[in-house]
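Notebook, p. 212. Picked up where the previous page left off. The plan for this session was modest: take the two constructs that came back from the sequencing core last week, fold each one, and keep the raw output in the notebook itself so nobody has to go hunting through shared drives later. Recording the first one now, exactly as returned: residue sequence, then the structure token string.
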Amino acid sequence: MSRLAGHGVPQVSNNGGVKVVTRLFCFVLALVWCVTARAAVVNVEFNFTPFVGDSVSNEVESFPGTARVYVNNVLLGERDVSRRPLPILPDSGEVRPAIWIPATAVGPVLRRGHNTLRIDFEPKDPGTTYHAQLRWASVTDARPSTDAGGGARTNLANPGTDDRVIKGKVSFTHEFDAEFAPDQPWHHYPPVASVTEEDRRSLLELVKARARTFAPDFSDLYALLVAGHRVDVDEVRKSGCLETVYDAGLRIAPADARDFDVGFTGNAEVILRSRNGGLFHPEDPTVFSRVTDTAVQKCAGLVLFASFPPRLAAVRSPDGGWRIVY
């Protein structure tokens, strides 16, 4: 640094200017990197809505039908969409969704890395034209804030929309990455494309063993609940709701061998299901009507749904044996 003679004004040499610009560029680059690094993707959200009406108005009406949601070729569930008004959200101009699917809620079927969502919708009225809309966005760990102009900044990134005007059935497929998903060792097992009769017998025995866990002192069932992290086991124990419904006559039966079926996903897991209803059922469906305590009904119902779902998924371990994974 030198001074202009007689004026005391700092003068930067050409070489010094290069250094200053370089340092400034590095600082900005580091700042951008820090902001990007902080804004990690922690979820991906999907919104599905079949509707009729004009989306530029204040509200539309959902279009009745049944939606089936799949992740990585595994059916997560079916959802009936009933006819009801759906407001247009004022901040975004988007239709309030009929079905909301956060990726973090789908369970172990979600892979770290690449995944595929599919939604099949079958309307009750196949002859009427309607909108079918799938929206998605990544959720980051950035803190929502307000910009200098007073506008809201959300923690959503990479939004997208697939909006179709259609009659009859429709199917949406969307591929997405989920680096935030827990990585399970069995996610890396080879895909299973077929099973032998011996495999089927082994898989059916897993289902029967699951049904047998519903018996006093329920220790095996509590162990399942702890492993699944889905139910407060201490509260269930304290309430005694399982003992109450068991004493009322509730027994859990597995699917009959003639109805038992194995589905393939193209991945390591196979889906254990029944061709006739759910994989499990109460031997006497009238038992719950004899339990009058609503708290007991709610507690037992939650445990039964978590432990004896309509379908189970199993994988073949490296030693050749089968085990249930969800």
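Okay, moving on. Second construct, recorded in the same format:
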Amino acid sequence: MIILNYLYGDRVSSMSVEEFYEYMSYLTKIGLNRELLNIFEKTLSNCHNDNPGYLLDSLTTENVCRANVKVYKLTKNRLK
């Protein structure tokens, strides 16, 4: 969750479940590693959570910048 909060630039736990999945969809559209996103999505389920550390190298500077809440809110409607 710390990694996701960093990418978002705010507390992801304050999102509704619907908004969380919309954000996950947005992250897919901007090219984040699908395996990394699957690990993030597991945080809402009642199953074993995996350590995403080995996938952090897949994040690009562009991914990190575009994942920020300010950029997300500006562009989310354009990507639908």
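Notes on construct two before I forget. Residues 2-75 form one domain.
Flagging for discussion at group meeting.
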